[in-house]
Amino acid sequence: MKKYNLFKVLAITVFVAWLLTLFIPASYTDYSGNIVTDSVAAVGVWSLLSNLSISISYFNSIAIFLIAVACFYAVMNKLEVYKNFVNKVASLFENKSGLLVTITIIVFGVLACLVSDPMILIAFMPFIYQVMKALEIDKKVILSSTIVATLIGAMCGIYNSTLFSLLSLEVNTLLLVKIIVLVLALAVLIFFVAPRKLKVQKTAKKEVKKPSAKQESKKSSVKKVATKASANKEDKSVKKVNKTIYAVLTILLGTLGINKFYAGKIKAGILSIVFCWTLIPTILSIAEFITILTEKSDKEGKIPVTSKRRTNVLFGTSLVLFVLFTLGSIIPWESLFNITIFSDFNSFLSEIKIGDYAVFSNIIGAPIVTDSTGYASGVINAFGSFTMLDVAIFLLIITAVIALCSKIKFNDFIATETEGIKKVLPIAITAMLISIVLVIMVTSGVATTIANWIISITDGFNIATATLSSMVGSVLTSDFYYFASTVGVVFTSVVSNADLYGVIGFIMQSIYYLMMIFAPTSVALIIGLYYLNIPFGKWFKYIWKVLLALLIIIVVASIIIFALV
Fold first, then answer.
1. In whole angstroms, what is the distance from residue 486 CA to residue 449 CA?
2. What is the DSSP letter of 544?
């Protein structure tokens, strides 16, 4: 019923957008950069339905990404070590859920401020949801701690290629202002969200009767006997290897998986060879080597091929590598820090040849390389320039690797992935099709007309009209690129003073992501509401105070910036 209400809101939004095209004339930018208003270019019913195919063809990357995330966590949830990790994290924050909410808000907010595409942070959100669900945290708080915190971070994003290109801005433009606004905005969110959870937790907490000392003692003795019997049984059946030989092979030849072959783990050895160029097997081998040294061997100097402690260490190391790689792949290193090592690495990979045969380009894929004329060719972006589709491909590959290493049978793997896709498919399709509003507004030219009308209310630049036009334009064009190409071009045609472009860029960026916190056309919000089964009406009643506070912060900051220009 809740999801039905969400679909009703989406349908009403599409219907209103369609009605606007029947009466509002189209506008476009001519070659001189001036806004020209033409006649009404209505989107007929036939065109409305045909626009569905445009939405699917242009905005399918979000669907593929969500499916890839679902497949990844479907496999992770099959692993006992992952389940134990989730439970352990949850236990660390037992009776400290307010602290967890605060930390989550800060982490997602700061990361979104640095990365090129904040939507990719959705890859980490299912894990946070599982932890918070175990602590019985309210779903609206979970949504605020993840999606909303991410959108707030994007409000103050340090680098935005679309905006920087449109207004000729630089990374250091209003950087201090953005940092101050980010701190204030995150503080507002924490103030409104964290105390509510503490109140919910207090009323929901149930008193649990503790077992007596006698019962505990009996339980402990039974557990020790069972553990001892289990250990004796395992000693006879578990395969063992010589500790010294295994340790030497791990530290010296672990990159090529020779230690895995020695231990009889053929699949793991092959995977180490295949991915040795990434240095991931090397890092895992170092972590495993340290763990091996601290393990006790038997009388014959042997240790088990697999141990719980070693598995936990390798899982923890792999988890850290996964997080660092995913985050590192979407931080624009070259644009923010002038680090060219990753684009240089792409050039190196493209030049690996045996004779005239390009090994990496033909087998893996052609890395994107820019020549001296500025022409870019290839399919694999440099590290730090990954798109949503690139991260989706990475997740699908890593999912298959985890399944192989975990010895998940092929039929079980297919069944697990199918179940995961079934759960996320409605969300993926909904997120993709909501872009039909964007398609209607952009193809009809209505969004540009409305923005021009609002901005033209006053002569020259005005913070009130700039804010209002950004608010309306954000809802009508829910993708920042198209928002900038419809509303941004109106600003550049009306405002000739380049000194004001900094404040214009600040208003456009901050207002856009502010609106995405509650706009029915916000892809991030729709994903969160659908996944957590939260009605749109209840969400707005919950978050409106945060929205109002954030709007005041943005407007005040804009006024101060404008006064100082």
1. 9
2. H
